[in-house]
Design goal:
2 strands; globular; 71 residues; single chain
């Protein structure tokens, strides 16, 4: 698996609730992951994103569910 994100973050929730697309910065705030860590993880998906990039729910699931956060 590897990846760049530190998934032992104490503030990491078990689940997040979304009603639609969310920006990288908003997702970082909800999950406790760093903005830069999320951007690096998106690069693993060949997605070049900024903190203001809007992410659809299915992509958010692919990013955070393998790391223990349910969407």
């Amino acid at each position: 698996d590897g990846g760049y994100m530190d998934f032992d973050t104490p503030s990491q929730p078990e689940f997040i609730e979304l009603e639609g697309a969310v920006t990288v910065e908003e997702l970082a705030g909800m999950t406790g992951f760093g903005v830069n860590d999320l951007i690096l993880e998106l690069m693993n998906f060949n997605i070049m994103a900024t903190k203001n990039q809007s992410l659809p729910i299915d992509l958010v699931r692919q990013l955070v569910e393998p790391k223990g956060v349910q969407v």
